[in-house]
Design brief:
Helix content is 34%, strand content 14%. The chain is α/β, with parallel strands linked by helices and 281 residues long. Helix 8 packs parallel to helix 9.
Length: 281
Amino acid sequence: MKIIEFKGGLGNQLFEYAHYLYLKDKYPSEKKWYAFFPWRELWQHNGLEIHRRFNVNLPKETRLSRWIGWTLFTINRKICTPYNLRCPFTSTEQFPNEEAMLQEGYWEHVKYIPSDFRFEYNVPELNEKNKILLEELATLRNSKAITPVAVHVRRGDYLTCDHPEYFAGICTEEYYNKAISYILETLPNPRFYFFSDDSDYVMKHFELPEKVVVDWNKGADSFLDMYLMSHFSALIIANSTFSFWGAQNNPFNPLVVCPPRFNNLPYDTPMAMPGWKVVSG
């Protein structure tokens, strides 16, 4: 029996689901369940939403699986973690254990993802702005006169969370300047479309001709930014699982520029899929 905890935002949940598929394939005879603790990190985002935004089949959850999962989680956090001990029943990034009953990490690792793996979106009726942008992107991709480039700049919760040092110094202004320079040197007539939770910062710090800021998908509609990113010819992504999946779910063979890692934690979390261009900030 294995219980996979789902937590964090939509990008995190996609990695957790990819980890579930990995375990499902490796341990086909074991039953798989999921645990969702709404009082954990999910409240910071839009709750458990992967099954609403993508065509996926989550493993089952029962009161028993949630109770077992929470019990194992509590044992690990209250008894093992304070003494830096490995809990035999729980797998985390610090102490990974595929055999453990509770899989409690974020699993932000490309080893769980085949290079051609994509999630299928479940997209509702789009508003006029999103329809117009998608039509524009299709026209640009077909004409090839202008190369549409998505740029993800994530600030928001990375600056206000309990441990902003986890994300600092990765996607700096130097990173974006290097990435933009690489795009300008590599692709013909790029047009940059910025996706950010801080549009004022983008307007102030990025002086580019024909710059477009996509800032109208808010709240429950935020996932549409990921969907839109999946239609660009090139992407400059942040150290964010959100734009990682915007790039990975893109079927148009895009050029992807990424930073070397997701965070500053002492775990091996490389971001680059095969063929992606890694730029350090």
